Amino acid sequence: MDIKQLIYLTNLERERHFGRAAEVSFVSQPTLSMRLKNLERELGLSLINRSNNFDGFTPEGERVLTWAREIVSVYQGLKLEVESLKHGVNGTLRLGVMPQCSVALPALLKAVQARYPQLDYRVAAMSADQLLEALNSHTVDGGIGFFELTSLRELHFQTALLKDPGVEALFNPVHFPVLLEQESISLTTLASQPLCLAEPTRYFRRYLDGQLRETGLIPRVIVESASIMQLLQSAQVGLGVMVSPCGHLLPELMQNLARRPIEIAPMGRQAALVIAEPGRASPLAQHFFDEARRHLPD
């Protein structure tokens, strides 16, 4: 057994396809299949359900995968640590991010860049369940999202809690002058406006829908999109009112828009930046986390 076999196994888990797993492993498909069969022979176990295509892992394969993820994560962390000793902190940090969390991620990354200019980032948008799974399986190095505090404690993540500055309405004052006259906006007033909202599967949207439902309000959602940029542009042209956590967007993106706080109960989950517990987090993730928390709002 060698590390490459375990890397091939974890790549197959991520890609769910022999051809794609071979491609990201930089080997041919026959080579990947042969090395995985050699691994099965060495262990004396069938790890992969094979038909004409990849058909998942056997129960034994799932157990081996748990160890493989840990070993590959430690191996990759060791490589990064050696590189940082030779050349300083550099490499690509994998971040999983839940959309519309209460921090402007580009501004945070820019602040970290002053300390670690050679650090690159690969950012993936994820749901809450996807993010927790990715953190546990080490397919991301860190995450920013909304979490149950009990889950964070049980999983022993290192956690930097993000301040909850509330929720705001963003609108074009030319098209919504009545909102401009108010210091804050009630849910009743908000529900009477055409809204620009994220998809219903997003946590922030579910939170907003739940608050409106409790008051018996059913708003008109004029634009619904997974793209924050589409929602923002819709608000800028006066198509509707965008609802967003305060601090989520850079001020430069909100030119020509008015902003008013919304009178709404706090979210049930806590926004946070998280990485694995000490000793399990990669050196790259630990360097990023220690520096990033210094730049988070108090």
Number of helices: 12
Overall average pLDDT? 90
Rg, alpha carbons: 23 Å
Shape label:
elongated
Strands ordered across the widest β-sheet = 4-3-5-12-6
Instruction: Specify the helix fraction band.
Output: 40-55%
Q: What's the CATH superfamily of the largest domain, by name?
A: Periplasmic binding protein-like II
Just give the CATH class of the largest domain: Alpha Beta
Taking pLDDT < 50 over at least 5 consecutive residues as the criterion, the unreliable ranges are: none
Amino- and carboxy-terminal Cα gap: 48 Å
Query: Biggest β-sheet: count, sense, barrel?
Result: 5 strands, mixed
Write up what this structure looks like:
By secondary structure, this protein is of the alpha/beta class. It has 3 domains: about 5-70, Winged helix-like DNA-binding domain superfamily/Winged helix DNA-binding domain (Arc Repressor Mutant, subunit A), CATH 1.10.10.10; about 90-165 and about 270-295, Periplasmic binding protein-like II (D-Maltodextrin-Binding Protein, domain 2), CATH 3.40.190.10; about 165-260, Periplasmic binding protein-like II (D-Maltodextrin-Binding Protein, domain 2, 3-Layer(aba) Sandwich), CATH 3.40.190.10. It has helices at about 5-15, 20-25, 30-45, 60-85, 105-115, 130-135, 150-155, 175-180, 185-190, 205-215, 230-235, 285-290; strands at about 50, 55, 90-95, 120-125, 140-145, 160, 165-170, 195-200, 220-225, 240-245, 260, 270-275. Strand 3 (about 90-95), helix 5 and strand 4 (about 120-125) form a beta-alpha-beta unit. Helix 1 packs across helix 3 (about 30-45). The N and C termini lie far apart (about 50 Å). The mean pLDDT is about 90.
